[in-house]
Amino acid sequence: MSKLHVETIINGEPVEFLCEPHTSLLDALRNEVGLTGTKEGCATGDCGACSVTLDGRLVCSCLVVAAEVAGHEVTTVEGVAEAEQLHPVQQKLLEHAGLQCGICTPGFVVAAKALLDRTPDPSETEVRYWLAGNLCRCTGYDKIVRAVLDAAAELRA
Amino acid sequence: MAEDRKYRWVGTRPIRHDGVDKVTGRANYGADFALPGMLWGKILRSPHAHARILRIDTSRAEAMEGVKAVATAADLPEQRPGGATDLSNNILARDKVLYHGHAVAAVAAITAEIAAQALDEIEIEYEALAPVLSLDAALADDAPILDTARRARGMDDTGPTNIAARVDFSRGEPDQAFASCDVVLERSYETQTVHQGYIEPHACVADTKADGLVEIWCSTQGTFTVRSLTADVLGLDKSRVKVTPSEIGGGFGGKTTVYLEPVAALLSRQSGRPVKMVMSRDEVFRATGPAAASRIELKVGATQQGQLVAATARLWMEAGAFPGSPVQAAAMTILAPYKLDHLFIEGFDVVVTKPKVAAYRAPGAPQAAFAMESLLDELAQQLKIDPIDLRLANAVAAGDQLPYGPRYKTIGMKETLEAARDHPHYSAPLGENQGRGIALGFWFNNGLNSSAEVYLTEDGTAVVVTGNPDIGGSRASMAILCAEELGIDVMKVRPIVADTETAGYTDVTGGSRVTFATGWAVVNACRVIIEDLRRRAAQIWECDLEQVAFDDGRCLPVEGSGLSHDPLSVAEIARKMGSTGGPINGQAQLSARGAGPGFATHLCDVEVDPETGHVDVIRYTAIQDAGRAIHPAYVEGQMQGGAVQGIGWALNEEYLFDDEGRMENASFLDYRMPVASDLPMIDTVIVEVPNPIHPYGVRGVGETPIVPPLAAVANAVKHASGVRMQSLPISPPRLLAALQEQAAE
Hints:
The structure holds two protein chains of two kinds. Chain A has two domains: about 5-80, Ubiquitin-like (UB roll) (Roll), CATH 3.10.20.30; about 90-155, DNA polymerase, domain 1. Helix content of chain A is about 35%, strand content about 15%. Chain A has helices at about 25-35, 90-95, 105-120, 125-130, 140-155, and strands spanning about 5-10, 15-20, 50-55, 55-60, 75. Chains A and B meet through helix 2, helix 3, helix 4 and helix 5 of A and helix 1 and helix 18 of B.
């Protein structure tokens, strides 16, 4: 069977790729488009390392069929910073040492930005529940939560 | 000697040098690497927990279009006695499979899908044997024996046994001393198999060239370990294998061995193409090193005033399919923090039909501390003594002897206990169904072998090259130490993690050793450069070397030397490197001794839901002696992360097996590690009792923080609910059953 041809928008730019009908968006991003910033921790939607937004909505790219993004807009971690300007979530994660190994960080960046896009002034509890789908085994979450709250404050300022 | 001086960079919190790449998705991890013409490798795993392999037929798989190589243990060289037999058999099972998920065969194909389909075409005939899924089952008189040729090390010939080794340590006459005690407590404690839970699955690309040279790109805590183990398994000289580290997505000890690399190299040799292999999460759970399940029988005697007199401990730990549980470390640590004139410790390494255990952060110590710190909590309660006071009254100090022989040098045990006692957390009020637990942790820390090169650039900035993968911010620590020594801006130092042919030999990123030992090598390499800079200043000033001092990034005349030159900065001398003797590089290597033990005291408040048995951690404070915190934010990060892994171990994490030995919860959803909404902030207090042997007083910090939490949580649950849980995890069904039992009594 021949592959599917998919036209979509990734990080604001038109992109075309070929994939099998059952290829996940995660695998398409990593293996067909070459955007390896989106990570695979489980491929079952449990860890959030593959978080991207699809038309602004936070999703696990491992649970999205790649062919379904035709005509929609995908944003990955590579699309969060504007040129050399880090997004406040990225900058605050660095300032607070909110990453150790860093494998979960792309997922946290995408998920936290999605939170702040809709909830500019989240409580600590809101941050913790919003990020409950993103596993981090290194930090115990403390510095990540502080970084997201600090980023929210900076975005509001 | 640790030097007491004011620091410009040590103790500050610069942004990590690899940070931008890691928040923008540019950093390349194990699964992110690719080569032209690369094949995809997959592993066929055993459907049995224990079986004899009668026959393997790979012919149908080999005949498939797109399949380029199929490998089994028959393609690996036989190991010499004392060689890498167990490792080889774990990577590809030879005669028997010893756990569900044990690798049996491997395929490389042009796509991952074809490789997966080819696995289905491999025929294997097994003779199923009874699984051995617990210590009791392994030690039973009629237990199925995993390896009938194996004899227990450290025991008189036992005949065939599942005990792989026995260790013991003793001092005084504990049995007689118990008779003189006012109180003797004897308790048994159990912990289950848990996983390190790194988020990045194991991954590698291997390329075996026509001349037999093997190149490997992989995620590992130790590139030189991968080189060595891969060469051993494949029967190659170590110089034939080059290993380049990717960024590493967590390890916690679990990435200090090899699973895929030799297999990928073998498939690459067979196919003549590079081969990429990436584990699924399911494979990581089923087939990579978890941490050992344990049973500990502990007996402690004390006076009415709370002086510990005697203790005995018997420990059994599951090694998994092959020998090598951390029972010796557990035995060495269990009584290490306390003064005891009489003790006997005996440990048994026991094989079972579960995946072979790997190191997990302070291997063996969390299980041991769970037992000892739980028992001390009970003792304190019984004697009506404050639990911190009880520990302080029995705390070891410099000069005291460890159960295994050596004497402590300067340590910070009492300081962490005092900091806990004085912390507002310790006296904060508690509500209904809430309780507070405290526990202490000890870990040896390690030194081992490290190399470092420092290259000065023409503008006086510096490149630092080491071979330790950066698993938690160590590049920043290396840069800080270099900046402090050379007196240059920390952000003008470029710390590099290099491959096995670029960096000098360096042991694993593990044992809490990188900032301590590799950092020390960086310091020494910088001091080689400083000597060179002084020599060049003397040459420029036409004076004697002794007349030139180096301070804060500048060469200057020694006071009283009579010279009146303006100081020469590192940058100024670097610009003159061509006319003063050429390039300015420093190189150093060491076998670092005197790592300096780590001590931590943790405070934990929980709230127990009496209706469900759910335990909520509502406040947590981790206090630890770091010797000297080079980058305090990453020291705190180690403390917080270790505490939370320990909370998971205490409250919920365990491998669940069915009767056939299949793991039933091999996914993140079902294994259920702590998530952000489970936890409060983790407060930290860094205590600094400098390690006297290290130039900056550094002690390792990475492992100690996972030692106290198991008991800290269990002790808190006891004080919240009245139930003392001596078996982990304290998951809702287990605690609810215990609460109901308590109510019925």
